[in-house]
């Protein structure tokens, strides 16, 4: 080992022995991914191209807003501190930014599941008038005439030709590598020597009993659309916007809770600024909304019974889902 690092330090690359870098790996405690990697194999050059695009404001009409603006790494690739995300000309969006993480395990995207192919997700923010307000065709034209992109497309795809399919697939390649599976919780469940404090451990037990029916499994979502009893505000009808089914009104996708301590504010409209406020909601604030989930309305009892101590313990547990390795990995950073 020492010999090898000296060799590297001396500037020689041991090409015969070096393993190609693995950009995507299924963590041992995760299920099989849902993304079709065969149709878009991740390569180093594809990753680099996708990352450059993700952080480049050239994708917006006036060159002011990149994807990374609303999906910032230290905040779990969400829009730090914004209830509703802000886009071009400081226009206010209608929803809270979602984390860009572990997307290989999702097959439906956005709070209402309105897009069902990761490769098509970027079209929405690019063309949304309150986000990047640009036409896809203009983006491709700007990339074709830019000094850096034709060569990057050539490295990634073997030719300088820039098409929307290549553009979108490169963005997916970068986003797919954003895997968060190295939190203290992960190391604890994988028996990697991590321990939980008594409060965290009690919080995990409560979480499994009272939250995991919806925030299920290692991704902390059962991928369904539900109404969790937050008071109806504004005119965002959620899932029924996609299905046109009244039974889906006010239902939103159950979000993952990985890195939740840094992805606030919370809920589809960012109405709660702290995890304490979220727990207070489940314990005391659940409203009798149309389509309220039955799990939150049992035997005439609304909400989830939780003492103040139990709420504190659940919050302590939720903090163990923060993955500093992921949030600080320079490979995913802008610079
Ligand atoms: C102005 C802020 C803003 C910009 C710019 C932006 N996004 Fe988003 N992003 C959001 C919001 C808000 C949502 C949730 C939208 C919804 O549910 O309707 C979201 C959702 C997503 C999701 C879905 C995550 C999930 O789990 O469903 C992905 C992926 C994503 N954005 C990628 C991108 C990419 C790639 C770009 C650049 C092309 C981009 N975003 C630009 C605000 C933004
Ligand atoms: C009946 C299903 C259900 C149960 C049970 C449930 N949740 Fe949720 N949770 C949801 C849904 C749906 C949302 C998104 C609601 C929205 O934005 O309108 C959500 C949102 C959240 C959020 C906000 C995440 C974010 O990124 O904005 C947190 C935190 C959360 N839940 C924690 C918990 C905890 C802790 C428990 C147990 C005390 C719990 N939930 C129980 C369905 C559920």
UniProtKB/TrEMBL annotation:
Residues 198-322 form the Cytochrome c domain. GO terms for molecular function: cytochrome-c peroxidase activity; electron transfer activity; heme binding; metal ion binding. Its main location: periplasm. Heme c 2 binds at residues 211, 214-215. Binds 2 heme groups. Heme c 1 binds at residues 67, 70-71. The keyword Cytoplasm does not apply. SUPFAM superfamilies: Cytochrome c. GO terms for cellular component: periplasmic space. Its cofactor is heme. Keywords: Heme, Iron, Metal-binding, Oxidoreductase, Periplasm, Peroxidase, Signal. Pfam families: CCP_MauG (PF03150), Cytochrom_C (PF00034). It is found in: Periplasm. PANTHER family: BLL6722 PROTEIN, CYTOCHROME C PEROXIDASE-RELATED. This is Cytochrome-c peroxidase. The lineage of its organism: Bacteria, Pseudomonadati, Bacteroidota, Cytophagia, Cytophagales.
């Amino acid at each position: 080992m020492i010999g090898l690092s000296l060799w590297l330090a001396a500037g020689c690359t041991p090409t015969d022995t070096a393993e190609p870098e693995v950009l995507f790996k299924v963590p041992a405690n995760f299920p099989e991914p849902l993304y079709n990697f065969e149709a878009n194999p991740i390569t180093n050059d594809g990753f680099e191209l996708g990352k450059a695009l993700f952080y480049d404001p050239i994708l917006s009409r006036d060159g002011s807003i990149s994807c990374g603006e609303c999906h910032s790494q230290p905040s779990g690739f969400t829009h730090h501190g914004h209830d509703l995300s802000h886009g071009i000309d400081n226009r206010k969006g209608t929803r809270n930014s979602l984390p860009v993480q572990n997307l290989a395990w999702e097959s439906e995207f956005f709070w209402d599941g309105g897009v069902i192919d990761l490769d098509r997700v970027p079209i929405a923010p690019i063309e949304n008038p309150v986000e990047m307000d640009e036409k896809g065709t203009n983006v491709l034209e700007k990339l074709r005439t830019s000094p850096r992109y034709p060569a990057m497309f050539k490295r990634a795809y073997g030719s300088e030709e820039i098409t929307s399919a290549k553009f979108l697939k490169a963005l997916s390649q970068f986003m797919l590598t954003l895997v968060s599976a190295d939190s203290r919780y992960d190391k604890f469940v994988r028996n990697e020597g991590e321990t939980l404090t008594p409060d965290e451990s009690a919080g995990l037990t409560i979480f499994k009993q009272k939250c995991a029916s919806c925030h299920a499994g290692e991704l902390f979502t059962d991928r369904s659309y539900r109404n969790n009893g937050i008071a109806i505000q504004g005119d965002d009808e959620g899932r029924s916007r996609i299905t046109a089914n009244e039974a889906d009104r006010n239902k939103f996708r159950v979000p993952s809770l990985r890195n939740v301590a840094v992805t606030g504010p919370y809920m589809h409209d960012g109405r709660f600024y702290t995890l304490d406020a979220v727990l207070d909601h489940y314990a005391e604030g659940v409203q009798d909304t149309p389509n309220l989930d039955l799990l939150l309305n049992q035997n005439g009892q609304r909400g989830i019974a939780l003492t103040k101590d139990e709420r504190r313990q659940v919050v302590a547990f939720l903090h163990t889902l923060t993955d500093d390795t992921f949030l600080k990995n320079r490979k995913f950073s802008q610079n």
